[in-house]
Amino acid sequence: MLLPPEQALFVRGTVPALLLAAAPVHDDLPVLAVTDGEVPRCDGWSIVPKLTLCVVDGPGEAGVVIPSMVAPVVDGDQGLPADLADWCEDAERAGGAVVLSLDALPESLDWAHLLRAGTSPRRLPPGTDLTDRPPGADLT
């Protein structure tokens, strides 16, 4: 399923993030679980970060394709515009990306709010160690 680029936000960081708004895979993605600062990998899910398209692929028919070349990219530290090639390198280096499926994209990157229990559903394909977590994230 194709997700319009305005419904995605690529966020650079040691552990890059991909925020999806009203994604068709919202109910298919596993709920994000953080234990001792780590997010386990999600079996059956993968992310393929490329400059033209980003694919989040799940089991069976679950998955989404984002035209990444026209989607917004921001730096996780300051929220300033960033380069998608750098986000792709971040994802390769981290071995994946945290994917958050939300009802709508946030006005600002408040990681403590986005990752706290009781907020919009948090989701993740292929997880990674969040010892080097997104800037400002309070995962404990």
Automatic annotation (TrEMBL):
Residues 120-140 are annotated as: Disordered. This is SseB protein N-terminal domain-containing protein.
